[in-house]
Amino acid sequence: MNDSILLRNNVKVTGRGTQPMLFAHGFGCDQNMWRLVAPAFEDDYRVVLFDYVGSGKSDLAAYDADHYGTLGGYAQDVLDVCRALDLRDVVFVGHSVSSMIGVLAANEEPERFAHLILVGPSPRYINDAPDYVGGFERADIEGLLETMEKNYIGWANFLAPAIMKNPDRPELSEELEASFCSTDPVIARRFAEATFFADNRADLASVRTPALIMQCADDMIAPTEVGEYLHRTLPGSTLALMRATGHCPHMSHPEETVAIMRQYLRDADGVGSSREP
Is the separation of the CB atoms in 21 and 47 below 8 Å? Predict the structure, then answer.
C-alpha cells in the first residue's frame, strides 16, 4: 500500500536531515516548481516532494472526480504521503491553494505537523462584502472557468504572465504556461473549481500548528489584504511581507523565499510577530 501511494503521487525523497520538510505545489503545477528552493534545505531536512493526483507525473488512473471535487481530497493526498513515509514533526511548505490544503491536513492530524509555511495563501478568493476582500468577484471566477472550457491554451497564455508578474523575465511566465498546458484540461478545470470556489475561513481558528504567511507584493491571486486577514485569523501565525512580486516567489525570487523560510525556522520565539524583511 505504501509503495503504491509513493508511485501514485510520484514521491521523491532527498536530504541528509531527519526532520521532514514536505513541499506541496500549487494549481496547474508540479513538484518541479520547487527545484530552486527545496535543495537549499537538503543539508538540514529530509526533503519530500510529490505531485497531487492529476498533476505532474502522478498516476492519472488514480484520479477520481468526486474525491478531488473539493480541497479535502487533495488534503488526503498529503496525509497519505505522510502516512506512507511515517512522517512526523513535518514542516509543510504549501504554495497557493496548497496552503489551505495544508491547513485541512494539519487540522485532521495535527500531531504530524510542526510548522506550516504558506506561500501566497488565500482562504477564499472571492470577495465577501463588506468585511472580506479576496481579490475576485464571483463573476470573475465564473468567466475564468468559462474561458478554460472554451479555450484552454488561450486561458493559460493570458493567465500565466498575470500570475507570475515579472515581465522582465518572460521565461518564468513561459514555464508556468507550459505547466498549465501539460495538465489535462478537464482535471485542471475541476481543480480550478475546487480552488476558486473554496471557502476555508472557518477552518483557520482550529489550526494549532504555528504558521508562516509569506505575502508577496503585487499579487493578483492573493492580495495584501488576504495576507493581513490570515495573520489576524490564524492563531500563532507570523506574517512576512516579501519584496518578491507576483504569486510564485519560489520561482521568481528563490533566494528571498529561502532566506525568509530559514529565518522563520531559526526564530523559535518569532511566532506571532509581523515583520518586513
Answer: yes
